[in-house]
Amino acid sequence: MVLGDLGSSLQDALEKVAGRSRIDEEAVEEVVRDIQRALLQADVDVSLVNDLSDSIRERALNEEPPAGTSAREHVLRIVYEEMVAVVGDATEFELEEQTILLAGLQGSGKTTTSAKMARWFSRKGLRPAIVQTDTFRPGAYEQSKEMADRAEVPFYGDPDSEDPVGIAREGMAEFEDRDVVIVDTAGRHALEDELVAEIEDIESVVDPDMSLLVLDASIGQSAGEQADAFDEAVGVDGVVITKLDGTAKGGGALTAVDQTDSSIAFIGTGEEVSDVERFDPDGFISRLLG
Ligand code: GDP
């Protein structure tokens, strides 16, 4: 952990603790209040903020700081550890043959993410391909094809079909010899039964090794509900946060990983196929608290 890296609001809060010789309740309360403010502004779920606050409060007051540790360092370490306990490390990917299913609402960034991830795997020396099963959104086929071209990876879709499950089946057969098959799915504007049923059907045909939930960084308090629904439908193994190049801090992803007991795989930082990074917990925590 780089101490100087944590968010500015937390830094300010910790300044208040810094001068004190012992950690009293009032000082801890000030830090907790500032953390709560920052996390709520970053769209982290209220009950998760409360849980985190309780743990930080408890530990800061009850744990003896290791010898030679200042009050500031002690509280900072606890805050960091509690955040890491929720957010965890980046989702692990084996660099071997696998099928990955992308799920999420319309506009969350699935199609863009499929091309970005395909490019990422191909730079790791694997041979990826994309299957586009979105028959719902007009233009999805064209967009996906163009993104796949830009990522220089093969692509399968059928602009004339209205049968996403059929496309999934054909796509899997088409790419039997590829190392990594990324299956993009249709979203909807909201969680609808039809969407959930469709993705369940695709999942059973594709039998993915991993299902990733793609979330727009600006998703707020509805992240938990979405995460639950997709988790129940296909089992969420990891989360991708898109549009972190904008002003949103992506706190909804924290709720999603907490509720699905998963982790964050990638972050999207722009519209180009190269605008993708593996998740870095330190940077993300710092952004949430900043
Ligand atoms: P889908 O409906 O879930 O497949 O979403 P798309 O992949 O079509 O993305 C919706 C819009 O968000 C498009 O205009 C994308 O260019 C844009 N987009 C996706 N990911 C990112 C990102 O990481 N940053 C920015 N700035 N835009 C993104």
Molecular structure report:
This protein is α/β, with parallel strands linked by helices and 290 residues long. It contains 11 helices and 8 strands. An 8-stranded mixed sheet has the order 3-2-4-1-5-6-7-8, sandwiched between helices. Helix 1 packs antiparallel against helix 2, helix 5 runs parallel beside helix 6 and helix 8 crosses helix 9 (223-234). Guanosine-5'-diphosphate is lined by residues 104, 106-112, 143, 187, 242-243, 245-246, 268-271, 275.
Structure keywords:
alpha/beta, 290 residues, eight-stranded mixed beta sheet, EC 3.6.5.4, GTPase activity, binds guanosine-5'-diphosphate
In short:
The chain is an alpha/beta fold. The chain is built from 11 helices and 8 strands.
Topology, please?
Elements: H1 8-18, H2 25-41, H3 46-62, H4 71-87, E1 98-103, H5 110-123, E2 128-132, H6 140-151, E3 155-156, H7 164-174, E4 180-184, H8 193-206, E5 210-216, H9 223-234, E6 238-242, H10 251-260, E7 264-268, E8 276-278, H11 281-289
Helix pairs in contact: 1-2, 1-4, 2-3, 3-4, 5-6, 7-8, 8-9, 9-10
Query: pLDDT under 50 segments (min length 5)?
Result: none
Structural class: alpha/beta
Shape assignment: elongated
Q: How far apart are the termini?
A: 16 Å
- Report the radius of gyration as a whole number of Å: 21 Å
Strand order of the largest sheet: 3-2-4-1-5-6-7-8
Q: Give the ordered list of helices and strands.
A: HHHHEHEHEHEHEHEHEEH
The biggest sheet, with number of strands, parallel, antiparallel or mixed sense and barrel status, is: 8 strands, mixed
- Helix coverage percent of residues? 40-55%
Number of helices: 11
Bound molecules: guanosine-5'-diphosphate
How many strands? 8
- Mean of residue pLDDT values: 91
Note the beta-strand portion.
5-15%
